[in-house]
TrEMBL record:
This is Nicotinate phosphoribosyltransferase. The modification Phosphohistidine is found at H215. Residues 164-378 form the Nicotinate/nicotinamide phosphoribosyltransferase domain. GO terms for biological process: NAD+ biosynthetic process via the salvage pathway. It comes from Pedobacter hiemivivus. It comes from the Bacteria. PANTHER family: NICOTINATE PHOSPHORIBOSYLTRANSFERASE.
Amino acid sequence: MFTFPLSSILDNDFYKVTMQQGVIRLFPAAKARYQFINRGKHLFPPGFATALRSAVNSMALLKLSPKEKRFLQLNCPYLDPVYLDFLEGYRFNPDEVHIEQEGDQLKVSIEGLWYRTILWEVPLMSLICELYYVLNNASRIGDQAVIDLARHKIESYRDLGVTVAEFGTRRRYSYQVQRLVLQSLSTYGKGSFIGTSNVHMAMLHQTKPIGTHAHEWFMFHAARYGFKMANAMGLEHWVQVYRGDLGIALSDTYTTDVFFKQFDKMFSKLFDGVRHDSGDPLVFADKVIAHYQSMGIDPKSKTIIFSDGLDYDKVARIADHCRNKIGMSFGIGTNFTNDAGPEPMNIVIKMTEAHPQDGEWTEVVKLSDERGKYTGNAEMINLAKIILGIHS
């Protein structure tokens, strides 16, 4: 029988925490809707929705412990006391999650106040993955093999001379596998391993929680301010909340080319760098380098965080291309936490609609540098491309 590990409300990606503080401060009355997208066309066994419903209901028991609050106070000084007090009182509300199953097809949606629903995506995805393997009786390699494989990988990255963070919560094989991977990375990764996106795992292994914001931050800003202002207002509000901390900007919500038109000298100097999440990483790196040079900024003073479907070969190719040109680091997800035997799932949960305080429900879209990663209604995607002058 599948039992969700009621370990921590912080078993979530750090960018959800940082965005939640921003939403509470700037958009406390905004609402959001999210939808599960089954990119891999996975077939779900009978009873899956019932088991998922039970696991989701159990999440209402999660709460921030005094120890966890202290960890955030000591390691994340940009999270203010009012927000940490809020998080201490926060409880998941399972009524915000709607789950249906028709045959082998799963439907999951989320709706509610944005500052509340923002925390659902990552644990829901990890639940779906773990439950999928359990109910399909998919066996994995043993614990020691998981540890040894992660050790081999991190030692290989260290030999490449690159720094690596673990970003694999959303599509992990299981909670236990991620624990084992982090144990191995923490033990054997000195000189290369720099932290994890999972706040709970960061506390367990006394490493750095890593993350800033996700696509939904800019998607909401498009609903509130329009497509042309989404990037600029999203960056402006991030600076307003964090005053120079958490300075890695996500660049591909409406394509990188559109982003850099608004990533002016002020933003280029203020932000520490950008994150790559779609499209050809080498082409992206060249664009970033050229952008900084056009602003009179030394690219070597800035950093690109690469995070798109990475494995050793891809990291080695990127590192060889970028070395001595620009700073770089790598966020590796599924290849760390779901390389345990069965095929990794290809699923996402994305914001589909936003309701600003003084507005109405508005469909939102994401136009990444890879057409296969577009999300949203086709008509709204076409409208965004027209407004933003995207011709691909």
